């Protein structure tokens, strides 16, 4: 039966019958799920979502992508996925697949929002690692506000985040907000208890933003001096 369905799936894809192909993907997935064949189900959904999204079938491709994160987050009743090994995959490869599917989905769609919510609840993928990849994709899409939010809680060292903020400020901010942009971000990061990220982002931002003439204090803008001394005081606090 499985071989017959796989052959029918290949024929549907070849002739561009994406609706039927989508239904067959779902049928095969639920059979594999019932049989607890996690690795095969994982590969099937990644392949199907990728092919349908690449063919411009946003709704169908997003549906398969969301079936995937539902499975990985144990949302399907009875699944007991505890590590990437259950998928015969590595953590890096799973994160890479999730990143590529996220990038292929329609921005600001409800399906994409569901995908992110479920992906961040996958227990064997560190949320900070996934958030870094999401932030980078959103940065490339020029969705600076969402990228910024993910960077705050990501595993990024701070350099990518700082460069995104420089671009964000220059593209969408007012010239008078050069200092406000970094000050607001640093305070939010400190509130999240990520001192090292705040320090790196501040250093890279002030050194790479063309409107900041000097890279060491005292800065011409008082707010930058305040943030510098605040970070120094926190660093020296015992």
Explain this structure to me?
The protein contains twelve helices and no strands. By secondary structure, the chain is mainly α. Helix 4 packs parallel to helix 6 (110-119) and helix 7 (127-140) runs antiparallel to helix 8. The radius of gyration is 22 Å and the shape is elongated.
Describe the structure concisely for a colleague.
The chain has 238 residues and is mainly alpha-helical.
Q: Which descriptors apply to this entry?
A:
12 helices, 238 residues, single chain, mainly alpha, 0% strand
Which helices and strands occur, and which strands form pairs?
Blueprint: H1 2-15, H2 18-34, H3 38-54, H4 58-72, H5 91-104, H6 110-119, H7 127-140, H8 144-152, H9 159-172, H10 178-191, H11 195-208, H12 222-236
The averaged pLDDT comes out at: 93
> What is the H/E string?
HHHHHHHHHHHH
Distance between the termini: 67 Å
Q: Could you tell me the number of beta strands?
A: 0
Oligomer: single chain
Q: Largest sheet, described in full?
A: none
Structural class: mainly alpha
Tell me the fraction of residues in β-strands, as a range.
Answer: under 5%
């Amino acid at each position: 039966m499985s071989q017959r369905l796989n052959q029918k799936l290949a024929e549907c894809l070849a002739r561009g019958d994406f609706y039927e192909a989508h239904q067959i993907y779902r049928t095969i997935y639920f059979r594999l799920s019932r049989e607890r064949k996690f690795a095969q189900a994982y590969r099937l959904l990644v392949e199907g979502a990728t092919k349908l999204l690449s063919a411009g079938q946003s709704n169908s491709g997003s549906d398969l992508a969301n079936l995937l994160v539902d499975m990985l987050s144990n949302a399907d009743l009875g699944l007991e996925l505890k590590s990437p090994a259950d998928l015969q995959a590595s953590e890096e490869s799973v994160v890479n697949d999730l990143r590529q599917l996220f990038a292929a989905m329609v921005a600001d769609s409800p399906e994409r929002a569901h995908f992110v919510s479920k992906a961040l609840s996958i227990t064997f993928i560190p949320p900070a690692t996934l958030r870094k990849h999401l932030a980078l994709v959103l940065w490339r899409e020029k969705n600076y506000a969402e990228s910024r939010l993910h960077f705050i809680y990501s595993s990024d060292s701070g350099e990518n985040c700082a460069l995104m903020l420089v671009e964000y400020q220059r593209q969408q901010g007012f010239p008078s907000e050069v200092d406000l942009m970094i000050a607001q971000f640093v305070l939010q990061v400190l509130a999240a208890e990520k001192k090292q990220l705040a320090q790196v982002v501040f250093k890279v931002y002030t050194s790479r933003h063309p409107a900041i003439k000097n890279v060491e204090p005292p800065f011409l803008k008082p707010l930058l001096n305040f943030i510098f001394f605040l970070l120094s005081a926190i660093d020296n606090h015992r």
